[in-house]
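Hi P.,

Sorry for the delay on this. The queue was packed all week, but I finally got your sequence through. Input first:
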Amino acid sequence: MSEQRYVAAVLSAIILILMSPSAHAKNPKPPAGLQETFKGCQWREVKGATLSIWSFACGAAQGGIHLVPDNRLPGFVLNSTGAESSLAVRAFTKSANASIASILPAIRAASPGAHTATCTLVPFDDADSKAFSKGAPQFTLEPTGAAKIAWDKAEKEGGPADPPCGRLGIYFDRSPLFWVLPDDKTTVVAVDMGSEIQIFDPSTLKRAAAP
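Then the structure:
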């Protein structure tokens, strides 16, 4: 092999390694927006029994906000000084070959609301948020039929007091997004993106490694 071809082969190998997901999966860097928002906070991996994710953890000066696993969900909740825990990520399980709609009964059971019985998963198409799920199709939990008509009317007039589909459903300032984990077709995640930038990076969500 000529020297030129050898150098080209080496460069190609290096590029493939750098482009490989496993090359950065061990210690991913925080997105620039998160890094700027949560200056002074610690970037770390948070592991639960089912999932792992990378997130910032802030000290008392920044309100003590941090992500902790809640294996009863299973998933993660946000804790902060002087505030109740709030849902961040919840996992659901399905058969590998089943559609995401197959877990709708489980989602409805986990998200009681005035019209949850009518709610279904609706495709959510947003180019910016696709990075969170690494391109996997995303969905929101929304009312249908008469409940949707009532919701649309209430939305225009200022809205009802409660989300129509419960905590995991669509609402004015937040709409949790659902998607199937790209690296595990048996796991669906519901990710509450919040009304402001969150401290975690949803694109780092994956099945937790066995201990």
